[in-house]
Amino acid sequence: MVQALQFARGRLSRAAQRLRGKPDTTLSLSAALAAFMPPPTELSPTAPAAPAFHAETGNRPASATEPPTHRYRAIWLSDIHLGTPGCQATYLLDFLKHNESDVLYLVGDIIDGWQLRRGWYWPQSHNDVVQKLLRKARKGTEVIYVPGNHDEVARQFDGMAFGDITVREDAIHVTATGRRLWVVHGDLFDGVVQHARWLAYLGDSLYTMILALNRHFNRIRTRLGFEYWSISQFLKHQVKNAVSYINSFEHAMVDEARRRGCDGVVCGHIHKAEIREVDGQLYCNDGDWVESLSALVETMEGELKIVYWTTLLDPPEPVGRRRRRATEMAL
Fold first, then answer.
1. Backbone φ, ψ for residue 160 (5° rounding)
2. Cβ atoms within 10 Å, residue 307
3. Domain 2-39+69-330 sits in which CATH superfamily?
4. 3-class state of residue 8 by DSSP
5. pLDDT tens digits for 11-29?
6. Which of 151, 211, 237, 282 could form a disulfide with 86 if both were Cys (CB 3.0 to 4.6 A apart)?
């Protein structure tokens, strides 16, 4: 165990040096993943699971000046898009700090391989997100990574573990009330991604431009004391064709969940957080971390809720202090 941690720290140190140096535009997504994770090991079906937190312990005790940490049975996150300027890593880090769970599902598009192939972008805050996820896994949270279309290179590692994070093509989650939920990113049910790849890339480029405008807009809102608000999400929900596409996507997802003998589905992909009944099946979308800043959570009693994290509980650290802390952790 000590040797594994030393190996991981060495990888993190070398990755930090690379990211602070000259950008490497030829670095592949699989190489980026390998920079942060130890060599994969086959999962053993008989291997004991990492110790989970007890439901009876409740929230962790917080100091008088620190906001409380919420405790959930499960948390679903997707469409983080690390490696893009649109990723709201600061808000996500704040969310991860103040929310714990027995199981954490990463439901695809965690790292944006499409954008990284166009040009290297990886600030310290994106490093911090990866380190935070690995740290949660080491401390007992069961972390399950279900890749999406932007990080599809990770699908080749189905059934393997990286730094205590399990990679799965899809997963089945059983709630405290006994409902079976099929967990999948959802891109395989997107006709544009599957049959018109060029159109998906074009749409992604236009979407990136809107997110850049959205980022500058919200920087001004923050200075004026307002909460985060997404221009791109507002525009998308006003376009009738987009609304029709979302409805078709939801029906396709619940139909497949029913065929698999499940009571509902949890997915991401379309960046629209929602919980509702569709054709008698439970449809849950956990949203994203470039527009809605949302997550799906299951309480200890089995209730499913959408949590929006549009306000920071902790102010971001100064860049110099954050870099020193990351370097100390890597040594």
1. -120, 165
2. 17
3. Metallo-dependent phosphatases (3.60.21.10)
4. helix
5. 545 544 444 444 444 444 4
6. 211
